[in-house]
């Protein structure tokens, strides 16, 4: 499928490209950085109606799927001046059904269907992946769109092409190899008028605003702090036109940011909503005791439990649901952070943010529209479809970017719910001045850090001063994950200080 080396190179090139642009082009540069590997050297053109990757030598196509040219779905923030959307993706495998040559749908709504009808909406970018299922030569052509795949030669060879569905109507897709269309290789592309109806109506916004966290505690005597959690299962918006049944603490992902000081007594009330299907619980990594509290908080729908613990050690800690299958509860959104401030608190900064990373394991492939379902097999074999900041695709790019002003110091509390993937947390275009390694606030922070490793069930704190206005991008520097939903914007208002960076040679720098 996608070639990781190419991706990495493309990502690096895009990031570099982003950095090289003068500030007035920051928007485009950021779009490029976000598109990064997603575009894998291939522009996913808004203007061009089609693009064809061209025929490949047969030698490169025999054997396993070798296209390596997936124009993966891209995304961005319309406010940032770009118009990429997730491509509507279909995968067709050639095969034999009832003695005829046919296309067979793979994945999503068309899975297993013979010559499936491909339904899209006007204006959508359509991506069609063709896989050779039996070894004869094939392609896919849509005449009216002047769109076609390469000829796939040899079993498991594949090809990908995309186009913008800007003509409404019904169009045949077929194999142009002599005789194949007549032999059965023909189906229908239906382009419906108007934009696809988004599912916002019946899907909740489960995204936790990264600015939604309590302020510093600083110096105060220790006290009993009551924490009220309600576990809520709800259909939430995963992406435009895509929903997932999340399991949450208080309806958002991540759960509430809990902030106490060392020595506090934390009294947790866990209520499980009466319309829940599952039992839920909570394990605080900040707690010492059986299950981090989970042993005392296994809570049936409609019930409430209480557990009390001492915040003995300062630090930034993950909490999560710990009801089996724990991985299932975590992937579905049941994680959050608790900060146990050291005596006197952390050094003051101008802005604090709360960001967590997790993965989603859906039956449907990344980018599929509709209601998606959890895939237990993918979960247990660690094959996620989505990587997410704060629970949804576009959570920190489209709906809730981080905002700051040039000259301010920014702190990000960053945790990984996971359940499985370690993050290489990085902000494109910035350097962390202070990193509280492994979430320890009792060890002096390390300084001048580019990328921080954060394991599942782990967290960190990064502080940095923003010297220059512009747009910065939060990523996991395992950048293939940016193609599967993982990106955030830090939008910084203020002067674009050319002394720090400008396009062109040094002697052209304005004083
Ligand atoms: Cu749970």
From TrEMBL:
Ranges for domain Plastocyanin-like come to 238-343
Checking SUPFAM superfamilies in the record gives: Cupredoxins
Does the keyword Repeat belong to this entry? yes
Catalyzed reactions: nitric oxide + Fe(III)-[cytochrome c] + H2O = Fe(II)-[cytochrome c] + nitrite + 2 H(+)
List the InterPro entries: Cu-oxidase-like_N, Cu-oxidase_fam, Cu_oxidase_CS, Cupredoxin, NO2-reductase_Cu
The entry's keywords: Copper, Metal-binding, Oxidoreductase, Repeat, Signal
Supply the Gene3D superfamilies for this chain: Cupredoxins - blue copper proteins
In the UniProt record, does the keyword Cell division occur?
no
List the EC numbers from the record: 1.7.2.1
Q: Which cofactor does it need?
A: Cu(2+); Cu(+)
| Biased composition, class Low complexity, residue ranges | 55-73
What Pfam families has UniProt attached to this entry? Answer: Cu-oxidase_3 (PF07732)
Which note does the record give on the cofactor?
Binds 1 Cu(+) ion.
Regions crossing the membrane: none
GO molecular function term, any single one: nitrite reductase (NO-forming) activity
Q: How does it assemble?
A: Homotrimer.
PANTHER family recorded for this chain?
Answer: FI03373P-RELATED, MULTI-COPPER OXIDASE
Q: What is this protein called?
A: Copper-containing nitrite reductase
Annotated organism of origin:
Shinella pollutisoli
Q: What would be the name of the gene that encodes this protein?
A: nirK
